[in-house]
Amino acid sequence: MARLLLLDDDEALAGPLAQYLARFDFQLEAVTRPSEALKRLAAERFDALILDGMLPEMDGFEFCRRLRAGTDPWHAMPVLMLTARGDLTDRVVGLELGADDYLPKPFEPRELAARLQTVLRRLRLAPPASASSGRLCFEGLEIDTVRRIVIAGAQPVELTSTEYELLLMLAREPGRVLSRDEILNRLRGQEAELYTRAVDILISRLRRKLEPLEAVKTLRNAGYCFALPVWEGA
Predict the structure, then answer these.
(1) Cβ burial, residue 16 (10 Å; 0-12/13-18/19+)
(2) CA within 20 to 30 Å of 116's CA: 50, 79, 173, 190, which one?
């Protein structure tokens, strides 16, 4: 059973939501303040965080930023943000700060369950190994598909689960152009609503983390492709 931590100051939400998510083999624990969430994350293991955008002490966007910037064992855990509005600004900010997905309020519990299942499925299913080594090797970059580790210039690169899946998707087919819509649909494992800006944000985050490597190339009006040469010694 996957354990989820809900950080939302709406105390009335936790009970009914926990009861509903239990149908999908999720165990939901809830806190209402960021300070409480940090204590729970330090003391217990959770598989994903459901994070509201509007909170006391600090808003959910700042909490997500600090989470991703930290070095604690849970800093890369999947984060699904709940936004009070479904507007572009909230979505862009959440994704730029490292959230794996977003859902505007009010939301359907079934959609929340589906998105959580997709995020956790990406995290749990080890990608098929490349040849016999389980590694994808390029000039300046190595991806260990068994341990889900990325090494760039001999240094480990910390990626969120979504960033890792995006990199792996592109690296498995070097030179092939993937459109924004195709990337969205593959990442979510379902037909995604048209929101091409989300892909641009993920690509931008990935590029920053892989600098100075120019691993991802943009093809105007077409999409993105992986541009690093395969390491012949692999």
Answers:
(1) exposed
(2) 173
Mean pLDDT by 10 residues, the chain (234 residues): 94 95 96 96 94 91 87 85 70 76 88 90 54 75 88 90 89 90 72 60 92 93 91 62
Domains of the chain: residue spans and CATH = 2-124 (3.40.50.2300), 135-226 (1.10.10.10)
| Under 8 Å between Cβ of 82 and 107 | yes
Instruction: Count H helices and E strands in the chain, helices first.
Output: 8, 11
- Residue 141: name the closest of 153, 127, 156 by CA: 153
What tokens does 30 get? 């809830």
Neighbouring C-beta atoms of residue 21, cutoff 10 Å: 20
The DSSP code sequence of 31-88 is: ESSHHHHHHHHHHS--SEEEEESS-SSS-HHHHHHHHHHS-STTTTS-EEEEESS--H
Q: Within 10 Å of residue 173's Cβ, how many Cβ atoms?
A: 11
* Distance of alpha carbon 234 from alpha carbon 130, whole angstroms: 10
Closest CA to 2 of 108, 75, 80: 80
Query: pTM of the entire structure?
Result: 0.63
Residues whose CB is less than 8 angstroms from the CB of residue 96 and which lie 6 or more positions away in sequence, other chains included: 201, 204, 205
